[in-house]
Design a protein that fits this description.
9 helices, about 210 residues, mainly alpha, elongated
Length: about 210
């Protein structure tokens, strides 16, 4: 299941430094959900976390770097891809679609994603944070797809990362552009259509 709000113990242990980071990232996520990226301030995060703002500025420096750290932590805790022995490519792509579905429909995590996605259209710092999040997720899922290519389930040269993107793109389009609900049926159709295209060679790297 995708991560909801950060809570004590969800970030790797490591003494006071780790506890401070947990408190700050939790506060940053809450502020992001409530206020959006552009109205998030280091002072508000400091007050919410109960941490001196000088500590936050010294460690993160800018709002963009703080949100990038938050998104990196969420990526590390988000729904992991199955192993390379996860079954058929149909199973893998459906699992990927369902992981996206879980992410965007989670009340807190989904709201966090939407806030950063919206900000990324006009802010380079937010865009960098979003890219870091998705680069990590796509890279991990692409490894599983690449294993299916090596096993002969898809044409040689199929770009696993592009196929993973093709599964999730329609779901985010519905959510962010059309503002339509995304459900299990939508996720399954997206995975099935991407698979048809992949088998036809649409994702073979040129």
């Amino acid at each position: 299941m995708e991560p909801g709000p950060l809570t004590a113990g969800t970030v790797r242990p490591g003494g006071r430094t780790a506890k401070v980071r947990t408190a700050v990232l939790r506060a940053a996520q809450d502020e992001l959900v409530e206020r959006g990226f552009h109205r998030l301030t280091m002072e508000q995060v400091a007050g919410r976390a109960g941490i001196g703002k000088t500590t936050i500025y010294r460690r993160w420096g800018t709002r963009a770097r703080l949100v990038t750290d938050l998104m990196g932590e969420l990526a590390a805790r988000s729904f992991p891809p199955p192993g390379t022995d996860a079954g058929s490519i149909e199973d893998v792509l459906l699992a990927n679609a369902r992981s996206v579905l879980a992410a965007i429909n989670d009340p807190h995590f989904g709201a966090t994603l939407q806030a950063v996605i919206a900000a990324a259209t006009s802010d380079e710092g937010a865009a960098a944070a979003l890219h870091a999040f998705y680069d990590r997720r796509i890279t991990e899922w692409a490894k599983v797809v690449d294993a299916a290519v090596e096993g002969g389930e898809l044409p040689p040269g199929t770009d696993g990362a592009e196929l993973v993107r093709a599964v999730s793109a329609p779901l985010y389009y519905r959510l962010m552009v059309l503002r339509q609900p995304v459900d299990e049926t939508t996720a399954a159709r997206s995975a099935a259509r991407a698979l048809i295209a992949a088998r036809a060679g649409a994702f073979v790297a040129c």
